[in-house]
Design a protein that fits this description.
By secondary structure, the protein is mostly helical. It has a single domain, classed as 3-Layer(aba) Sandwich (Rossmann fold), CATH 3.40.50.450. Helix content is 46%, strand content 11%. The chain contains six helices and five strands; from the N terminus they run αβαβαβαβαβα. The strands form two sheets. The chain has a three-stranded parallel β-sheet, covered by helices on one side. A two-stranded parallel ribbon has the order 4-5. Helix 1 crosses helix 2, helix 1 packs across helix 6 and helix 2 packs parallel to helix 3. Pfam families: YpsA. InterPro entries: YspA (IPR010697).
């Protein structure tokens, strides 16, 4: 929502996917084996789609851990369909709570669980205006103060650079 992308046909999504693809390939080449996420509507789903594409070329695995059962039930239908396709192709799928939505603690605990189970994260965020990602970023920065937790950013400037590069090359197709 913070990107003001209202539907799955928005042409800006391809630039987000290119940014994730580039960062993920570099991480895979450095030894990344697993990516875990909740599969949240929007950026996480697009990243998951990129990972699924990369599975054809690289030995990368995808784990989807939504905070509760029927996580996607209130999303627009197109996102529900995307989520179901992603979990079908994921290497592992398990809701963290084996129940439907109960309270905000499920989202909060999901963030802490993902941080605990990972060595780092790849975030698309504008640190000046982080929006809802700011809640996760605050938790991650606290973990980073205690350990060697890695944060890799994709910034609005990174996205702008990809757009400029593609325009200069007259290449608006996804790499």
């Amino acid at each position: 929502m913070e990107l003001n992308i209202k539907n799955e046909n928005d042409p800006r999504i391809k630039f987000v996917k290119i940014a994730f693809k580039r960062r993920l390939i570099a991480l895979i080449e450095d030894g990344l084996e697993w990516v875990i996420m909740s599969g949240q509507m929007g950026v996480e789903l697009w990243a998951a789609q990129v990972i699924i594409e990369l599975k054809d070329l690289y030995s990368i695995k995808l784990g989807i851990f939504p905070p509760f059962l029927e996580y996607e039930s209130r999303w627009p239908e197109i996102y529900q369909e995307s989520f179901l396709k992603v979990i079908e192709q994921a290497d592992f799928y398990q809701p963290l709570y084996n129940e439907n939505y109960k309270a905000p603690y499920q989202f909060i605990n999901k963030d802490y669980w993902l941080i605990e189970k990972s060595d780092g994260c790849l975030l698309l965020v504008d640190e000046e205006y982080p929006g809802t990602v700011g809640y996760l970023l605050d938790k991650i920065k606290k973990e980073q103060d205690k350990s060697n937790y890695m944060i890799i950013y994709i910034t609005p400037e990174d996205l702008e650079e990809i757009v400029r590069e593609k325009q200069e090359n007259n290449q608006m197709e996804l790499d």
